[in-house]
Design goal:
Layout lengths: L10 E5 L6 H12 L1 E5 L21 E2 L2 E2 L2 E2 L12 H17 L3 E5 L3 H9 L10 H7 L4 H9 L15 H14 L14 E5 L4 H17 L2 H10 L4 H7 L1 H10 L5 H28 L4 E3 L1
Parallel strand pairs: 1-6, 1-7, 2-5, 2-6, 7-8
Antiparallel strand pairs: 3-4
Length: 293
């Protein structure tokens, strides 16, 4: 059993790349510490994305005890759920945990969400500018980077996530807003977690990704995506969700053969895991103490 100094820490955080076993460890810690798991996964918030996002809800039962969890299955498919939504929902979930005298166990691999929790900053509340976004969507990545770099440096530049086209556009939206606006005030809990990171060798990480992908395909992942399409979800929406939902949609629509889908999906999950590790190393450079297992 891991004992943490509650005079220093008021929560725990389990992070790591995809397929590293975060949920299993978080549930074990919640069992030992009378905790509640708060998910920090940008796709597990959506209902019906079960196999592809690895919700593994059965893992929240340990020794016949149901471990409470939050921030999973809270958004309807077809809607847009962003960081601002997550920050508001996190505040509510945190209060529910602490009111129940449970230790919050934050678990996930979405660096943007983890960073927002740790910094408690207000950038998530910068309003969305749909007209400006539509204009930027036609830009190439290089053009977006050049546009972003023209803005004067702010504190936000130190934490901005430019890893995808969508997040780069959001970063531009924020730095543009900051040129003529003051950040909105927001009340956010002071989160002081004991941070545990699950690290692996590159070879082991790739092997676990391959095994988990095969397991998900064997468990009906293709049928899950087919059902979502039959229920009226647009291909474009599923493709924007990325990874499993993108490549299986391309397979179902005939744009990829099964073997091509499987190979490309595996490669992109590996690349995603590498980007996650880059984010976690950035957190360490910023002064966050991650206890790697």
């Amino acid at each position: 059993m891991l004992n943490i100094d509650t005079n220093i820490y008021n929560s725990m955080m389990v992070l790591g790349p995809t397929a590293s076993g975060k949920t299993k460890l978080a549930v074990q810690l919640a069992y030992e510490q009378n905790g509640c798991v708060l998910s920090a996964d940008s796709r597990q918030v959506y209902k019906h994305l079960d196999i592809g996002t690895g919700k593994d809800l059965e893992e929240y039962i340990i020794y016949d005890k149901q471990i409470p969890y939050k921030l999973i299955d809270i958004a309807e498919l077809g809607t847009q759920y962003n960081l601002s939504n997550y920050i508001n929902d996190f505040k509510d979930a945190w209060k529910q945990c602490t009111d129940a005298k449970q230790l919050p166990i934050i678990c996930g691999g979405t660096g943007l969400y983890l960073g927002a929790i740790l910094k408690g900053h207000s950038y998530a509340h910068v309003p969305v500018n749909e007209i400006f976004r539509k204009e930027l969507e036609s830009y190439s990545r290089d053009k977006l980077i050049n546009y972003y770099n023209k803005f004067p440096q702010t504190d936000y530049h130190q934490i901005a996530d430019l890893s995808t086209q969508r997040r780069l556009i959001r970063a531009i939206e924020i730095v543009k807003y900051l040129q003529i606006n003051i950040l909105p005030e927001t009340s956010f809990p002071q989160v002081k977690p004991y941070i545990i990171g699950l690290g692996q060798t590159l070879e082991l990480r790739r092997e676990k990704i391959k095994m988990r992908l095969q397991n998900r395909l064997d468990s009906g992942l293709v049928d899950e995506v087919k059902t979502l399409l039959q229920q009226g979800l647009q291909q474009e929406y599923l493709i924007k969700l990325g990874l499993e939902y993108k490549y299986i949609t391309l397979y179902i629509s005939g744009q990829l053969k099964y073997e091509e889908m499987q190979e490309q999906l595996y490669n992109h999950i590996c690349q995603f895991a590498k980007r996650q590790m880059t984010w976690f190393r950035k957190m360490e450079r910023e002064g966050y103490d991650i206890h790697w297992l």
